[in-house]
User: Fold this.
Amino acid sequence: PAPMVDEKEPQAVALGYVHDAKRVDKAKFPKYAPPQRCAICQFYQGAATLPTAPCTLFAGKRVAGPGWCSAYVPKA
Ligand code: SF4
Assistant:
């Protein structure tokens, strides 16, 4: 499987990506609100029940279902 996104890689830092939405920096990203998370984001390339899946925004990498970034868009 594709490697996980590293929270410290530049794109992850730029988007505020974290593996666990509980750790979102709410001061920096006030738009975050539960239950937002990767698993129910439009860019999550897998079933919401999968613990990890590729994300369209992070080419060749996987993100965590419970994760979050500021590009979050709810699945239609
Ligand atoms: Fe997670 Fe969506 Fe951000 Fe990708 S775009 S890291 S699936 S919140």
